[in-house]
Amino acid sequence: MAAVAGGLTPLRLDLRQLPAPEPMQRILDQLQTLPAGQLLLALTPLYPAPLLPILAQWGFVWYVHDAPGGGARIAICHASDRHLLDTPPAA
C-alpha cells in the first residue's frame, strides 16, 4: 500500500459485497475515529449518494467515481486535509 501526500497509509474498506445500508454505516463508523491526516478509501456496491450530505455535515470532503466492474470508489478525509484528495490512490 502506498502512502498518500500526508505520509499515512490510507485506511481501505471493500464493502462491495454488503447489502444496504451496511456500506454507509461502516464508513460512518470508521469516520468517527478517523484521525486528522488520514484518508479513508472505500469500494461500495452503489454510488453512495445518501452518504454525501452526511459527510458534508460532519466536516469531511470526498472524491467519488465509478469503479471498474461496477459500484463506486470513494476517498474521504477531513476538510482540513483536502490536499490528500489531489491525487487519490487506487483502491
Describe the structure.
This protein has 91 residues and is of the alpha+beta class. It has a single domain, classed as 2-Layer Sandwich (Translation Initiation Factor IF3). It has two helices and four strands; from the N terminus they run E-H-E-H-E-E. Strands 1-2-4-3 form a four-stranded mixed sheet, with helices on one face. Strand 3 and strand 4 form a beta hairpin. The protein is globular. The N terminus is likely disordered.
Q: Helical region count?
A: 2
How many β-strands, per DSSP?
4
User: What proportion of the residues is helical, as a percent range?
Assistant: 10-25%
Strand content is: 25-35%
CATH class annotation: Alpha Beta
How many domain modules?
Answer: 1
Molecular shape: globular
| Distance N to C terminus | 9 Å
Helices and strands, in N-to-C order? EHEHEE
Q: What is the name of the CATH superfamily?
A: TusA-like domain
CATH-scheme architecture: 2-Layer Sandwich
Classify the fold: give the CATH topology. Answer: Translation Initiation Factor IF3
Counting helices, strands and paired strands, the structural category is: alpha+beta
Mean model confidence by pLDDT: 90
Largest sheet, described in full?
4 strands, mixed
